[in-house]
Amino acid sequence: MKTINQVKGFSKERFWQVVKRFWILNQKKWLIGFAGGSGILLVVYMLTSFQILDTSTPMPNSMAGVAIVALGLTLYKYGGYFLTSGIFNELGKKSSASQMLTLPATNLEKFVAGWFLSYFLYTIVVVGLLYIVGILLGINPILTSQQLSDPLVNMSNVYFLDTMLTFTALHSVFFLGSIYFDGNNFLKTLLAIVLTFAFLGILSLILISITPNEISFSYQFIHSPARLYLSAAIVKIAVAVFFLFLSYRQLQNRQVA
């Protein structure tokens, strides 16, 4: 990595050097993951094509496109979580932690570089390729409008929006885990998520059990699909902002320590 004089403020040159460094350190793992995901999608497409040829009533090519894009978005999510959890894995190694912490770049530049590579660039590349594949297979995977009043909603559209919002929220959690934990970041973050949901579930059961039967709660807003999707979107975006803030603070704390 080219040496750049440390100065205050955000430097585009230092930022791109850190992005390049992150990519060089992680490119092997990322390329293997990309090749593996592409191979899985290719196998599924070939199996789907054979099924279309064997059936007396051929399935529309668009149905194969929906299946491929849906599977691709699933791989996008979970593959992204795994890759994100290792973006700051240098911090968990004694041999490389000092190199990471003493880089001639500010904490903000390191933070934004890690987020840019693991979320923004990753999303642009993967979702962009899935969009092209979807178009070639006869579907438009990008959500333009939700026909919430129609029970036959385009599965790929709804799934696309939900996947993007879910990935945005959980990416921030695994991003924090990549900074906070030392080694096995993905498994430790996953365990923390499971324990958190288990705790919240137990707490909810306790609150319900001690709540008097005379008290009732109104969930009328749930009957409005538009409000439900909007509420879910707001919650997921808020979760992402909160955990990204914690990630930046944790990176600052590790720099001081």
What key phrases describe this protein's structure?
74% helix, 257 residues, 7 helices, mainly alpha
Account of the protein in words:
The chain is mostly helical and 257 residues long. It has one domain (12-256). The chain has seven helices and no strands. Helix 1 packs antiparallel against helix 2 (61-84). It starts with 11 loop residues before the first helix and ends with a helix. 25% of the residues are buried. Mean pLDDT is 81; it is low at 1-5 and 143-156.
Secondary-structure element pattern, one letter each: HHHHHHH
Which blocks of ≥5 consecutive residues have pLDDT under 50? Answer: 1-5, 143-156
Query: What is the gyration radius calculated from CA atoms?
Result: 22 Å
Classify the secondary structure makeup into a structural class.
mainly alpha
Q: Strand count, sense and closure of the main sheet?
A: none
Output the number of helix runs: 7
